[in-house]
Amino acid sequence: MRKNHSPLINGDFYGKDILSLNQFSLLDIGILFSLVNRLCDKHIFAEYADKLQGSIAALLFYEPSSRTFSSFDAAVKRLSGQTIDIRNPEVVSSVAKGETLEDTIRVFETYADTIVIRHKDVGTAQKAAAVATIPVINAGDGIGEHPTQALLDIYTIYKHTGRLDNLTGLIAGDLLNGRTVHSLLRALALGKDNTVYLLSPKELRLPSNELSEIKKRGVKLIEIDKSKDIPMKCDFWYWTRVQKERFSDMRKYEKVKNLFIVDKKFLNKFAGKETILMHPLPRVGEILPQVDLDPRAMYFKQMENGLYIRMALLLLVLGKAL
Ligand code: NCD
User: Residue 280 Cα, ligand 1 centroid: separation in angstroms?
Assistant: First the structure.
């Protein structure tokens, strides 16, 4: 396949890497969402069920994953493609023998049509994309970005509110290390007049360069550190886990973990009737299971949307959406 090195999607996904939300415009989001809507319709889905026949995706996951890995895997297979699954390449592949990232990429691009990569270091997906002659999809690069997660997040918001403009949201938890937050804020910057309240302890605030970058893009950001400052009637809440694996000092982690826990009482006190409660998952205590049956709890539906977002992205990037 032809790889297209142009960083912006600009209405044409074919052959492009998916590395950051910075590549997307509203036009691109529209193209993606309309394909997702088609895939979600089981009658229309049949038209796509064989589209990846003969295509192979290499899934290179250097960090743990449940949803992202499995949904990419399922997305490829449901479209009749196949995967090369390499979980923990540093244990099971020649990475264990000291092979460089560049050489590892050269290996998998020889056998596959696209590479989906997750790594603990910021910028690894970009590095892989720079050497790869096939499209590379960033499935999370350290504390950097997680673009496919943000796409499914804004799809979920769009499905429930009918818009990407004029939203008021709350993002809570680990805004420093949470890569999904960094991508989601970029996605929200595509709409107009969006306001996001950022709730975290001061140790886990959004990095100041990110804060000013997102503000420059037009999102109104308001940092708060107490639940009493949460505005009523948010369109969405986006809760996140404190990213334990990014801490070198576990005492610091213990101090800031689970400061904001959503239970029934908290939800009823601070959320609006229409507020949807989202979370990229896994949750580790910050949303209690007692909330799961509340109609506002959207995290499992959000996860399901991820399967369709990833199917649509694969179809578009591999030029099989027609
Ligand atoms: C997230 C991640 O890996 O960044 N998980 C996911 O992909 N749904 C969030 C997290 O691990 O907290």
Answer: 6
